[in-house]
Write a structure and sequence with these properties.
By secondary structure, the protein is mainly alpha-helical. 44% of the residues lie in helices and 4% in strands. It contains 16 helices and 10 strands. A two-stranded antiparallel sheet has the order 1-2. A two-stranded antiparallel ribbon has the order 3-4. A two-stranded antiparallel sheet has the order 5-8. The chain starts with 24 loop residues before the first helix and ends with a helix. The N terminus is likely disordered. The structure holds (2R)-3-hydroxy-2-(alpha-D-mannopyranosyloxy)propanoic acid (2M8). The site of (2R)-3-hydroxy-2-(alpha-D-mannopyranosyloxy)propanoic acid has 10 residues, from α2.
Length: 455
């Protein structure tokens, strides 16, 4: 029987393991310099070049890093993001900085046209969302640097975090089974994961003729390390379809070509309820409804997205009703749910420890984002193989929650070593640890600080 020791937001002290102590002071200085350089008055850009605005789940991870350096920025980061929350409760995946030109990022504010939409804020945003890791991050950051000011900020954020959950669990429950659906791969945060290949294949691209727009990402990063032009054509087509309906969610099941229940997105939604229960207790609100909702989401996730034949979680494509076949790192992420049944925890441990992902107490290579043994594993291409800090951090939290500190430590160390060798890159080659994407990426720096605080 697996010992359960509480929600993922309550880090379990990591016992000493038999590896030589290392001096990480240079690494801490690098992480601090990266975050300082990316700070933009009230939020932090993920990268000055590739992503010069505010991104939703980036801000959540970045807020954790600021708790180690300047806790007031934790609250500024989250507060500025939630100031752009739409009236329906959605937290937009990009909040555009008005002083940055429209051409600096594609698709920019003109393309999204959010300010024409009733219920959207005055500040231009995208119309999509990202995994709701914010309650978990807010609670984690608060626990890292508790203060009266922090508690007051938590109190102000709480109703907004609740509204975010309400939006997802009502308007986005398109399958009617208690899970939220994503309407675009960008909403998963793992944009070009092989998990989306099957549902994306049927998205018509004629509305987004390649060449009708200019990709900015491949000006700043190698095209071979980014999504393909065909991926972008489909991304653009999906935004165009959602935008044409005013970003409304009514009747999406009848008209939208991409509707998927994602294991990470829904695990984040469940973990958010557990974190909200902790926050509620801290600020004198009732944790009970959050505990009940967390339990319901976990049950729905296991019922809908766990496949006993593969022993892992898969996204469910609502257009076909089927689970998508790829075995990606998304399948491991429900381990962040504190009340995940022991059977699924054991299955995740088996999948993670297999040659597909290589999780171990001592890991020569960091955790990949896709099955290393799969024919479509691409070690350089973004979310189709490379290793990422935020996924490492989330899965480590889950391993601690479910009583596996040595595995958690092995996972963290493999990623720390990659950053120590390559720098605060956006992602890392899963075989060599070489740095890929942006060389000064904020969530890598932020979560590195959090890992080092326990190492
Ligand atoms: C990536 O996604 C954006 C679109 O949202 C892009 O490729 O332009 C993803 O890695 C996503 O998870 C991340 O939040 C964003 C900013 O770092 O970049």
């Amino acid at each position: 029987m697996v010992e359960r020791v509480g929600p993922p937001v309550e880090p379990v002290p990591t016992p000493a393991v038999d590896r030589p102590p290392r001096d990480y002071s240079g690494l801490v200085a690098l992480a601090r310099a990266t975050l300082e350089a990316n700070w933009a008055q009230e939020h932090t850009v993920p990268s000055r070049t590739l992503y010069p605005h505010q991104w939703s789940w980036d801000s959540a991870f970045i807020a954790i890093g600021w708790a180690h350096l300047r806790p007031e920025r934790t609250w500024s980061e989250l507060t500025s993001l939630f100031e752009a929350q739409w009236r329906d409760g959605r937290v937009p995946h990009i909040v555009f900085n008005p002083v940055v030109s429209d051409e600096a990022y594609f698709p920019g504010p003109r393309f999204w046209g959010s300010t024409l939409i009733e219920g959207a804020p005055a500040r231009a945003t995208s119309g999509l969302v990202q995994p709701p890791v914010h309650a978990l991050a807010a609670w984690h950051a608060y626990r890292r640097a508790p203060s009266e000011r922090g508690r007051a900020a938590l109190g102000r954020l709480y109703p907004r975090l609740v509204a975010q959950q309400h939006y997802l669990s009502s308007r986005r429950d398109l399958g009617g089974a208690g899970l939220a659906s994503i309407v675009h791969p960008w909403e998963s945060g793992l944009d070009n994961s092989p998990a989306w290949d099957e549902p994306l294949a049927v998205v018509p691209t004629e509305e987004a003729v390649p060449g009708a727009y200019r990709r900015r990402d491949i000006v700043h990063a190698a095209a071979a390390h980014r999504p393909t032009d065909l991926d972008y054509a489909r991304y653009v087509a999906l935004v165009t379809a959602y935008r044409a309906g005013g970003y409304r969610d009514e009747d999406l099941a009848d008209r939208h070509p991409f509707l998927v229940e994602c294991p990470l997105f829904n695990a984040a939604m469940g973990a958010a309820e557990s974190a909200l229960a902790q926050i509620a207790r801290e600020i004198g609100a009732d944790p009970g409804p959050h505990h009940r909702r967390a339990a319901r989401i976990t049950t729905a996730l296991v019922d809908r997205l766990y496949d006993p034949r593969t022993g892992t979680f898969h996204p469910r494509d609502l257009r076909t009703g089927r689970l998508t076949p790829a075995r990606t790192v998304l399948g491991l992420t429900p381990v962040i749910l504190p009340d995940l049944p022991a059977e699924q925890v054991e299955a995740i441990l088996a999948e993670a420890g297999s040659s597909r992902f290589g999780l171990a107490a001592r890991m020569a290579r960091p955790l990949p984002s896709h099955d290393r043994t799969a024919a479509d594993f691409e070690p350089l291409r973004y979310w189709r193989g490379p290793s990422w800090m935020n996924i490492t951090w989330l899965i480590r939290c889950g391993l601690l929650t479910h009583g596996h500190p040595r595995l958690a430590d092995g996972l963290a160390t493999s990623m720390i070593e990659a950053v120590a060798t390559a720098g605060c890159h956006e992602y890392f080659h899963p075989e060599t640890g070489a740095g890929l994407g942006s060389p000064a990426f904020s969530w890598t720096a932020a979560l590195l600080l959090d890992l080092l605080a326990e190492t």
